Amino acid sequence: MAITDWPEDERPRERLLARGAASLSDAELLAIFLRVGVKGKSAVDLARDLIARFGGLNGLFTASEAEFSSIPGMGAAKYAQLQAVLEMARRALGEDLRKRDAFSNPAAVRDYLRLGLSGLAHEVFFALWLDTRHRLLVAEELFRGTLSQTSVYPREVVKRALAHNAAAVVFAHNHPSGLAEVSQADEALTRALSRALALIDVKVLDHFIVAGRAPPLSFAERGLL
Q1: pLDDT 10s digits, 20-34
Q2: Contact, 31 vs 44, CB < 8 A?
């Protein structure tokens, strides 16, 4: 049955307008983006299939164009629309971090990092360079590694801090395995970077591990900084 044949108060778009986006399931939100289904499937049915196929929204958002387009009814145009929506969300969160102290809204920091790092098949080491008021100056990927490790060089990190005239930094890296656990190597690296950056009066405020759908793990909250 097509969604247009459903009772009006059960249709995703009408429910969103009446009750807000938070009242909808993942599949219903995705169905609004898809707008139409395919032969024999409503947009909600198709959305459920996509979520199941990719193991959740994170998997869908990070799928390659080839993977996405392999699903009947999907294609390059819809893939481009999805990527545009994600990039707008990242930029909106980035604007918020540039306007205020990043740590006055820790949820925005976590959301920003999850959108940028969660679901990647390779490990990356990321930095949010901040000014004296802890507002975002630049967000940049510093190093990229293999599925299991990445090489991070304190000397290069110091050079990037000086280039941006940063006063503080928040580091982040992802665990493609999906396990948000702090390793001894993670702790040692964070200490080494903190010591190196202290020499130029740049403070390491936090280091997050992004893994799976869980909230990014904070070193500061664990007492590791």
Answers
A1: 888 888 888 888 888
A2: yes
Determine how β-strand 217-218 pairs with β-strand 136-144.
unpaired
pLDDT tens digits along 68-91: 888 888 888 888 988 888 878 777
Helix axes 26-34, 76-99, angle to 10 degrees: 120
Q: Which residues are within 8 A (CB) of 63 and not within 5 positions of it... i.e. 6 or more apart?
A: 54
Q: How many CB atoms lie within 10 A of CB 25?
A: 13
SS (H, E, C) 24-76: CCHHHHHHHHHCCCECCECHHHHHHHHHHHHCCHHHHHCCCHHHHHCCCCCCH
The rounded distance, in Å, linking the Cα atoms of 83 and 209 is 23
Can you name the residues that pair with 206 across neighbouring β-strands?
170
Longest dimension (CA), the chain: 66
For all residues of the chain together, what is the average pLDDT? Answer: 84
Q: Give 159's strand partners.
A: none
Is pLDDT larger for residue 41 or for residue 189?
189
DSSP 133: T
Tokens 């665990």, residue located: 175
Distance CA 81, CA 219 (A): 35
Angle at 92 between CA 87 and CA 98, to 5 degrees: 125
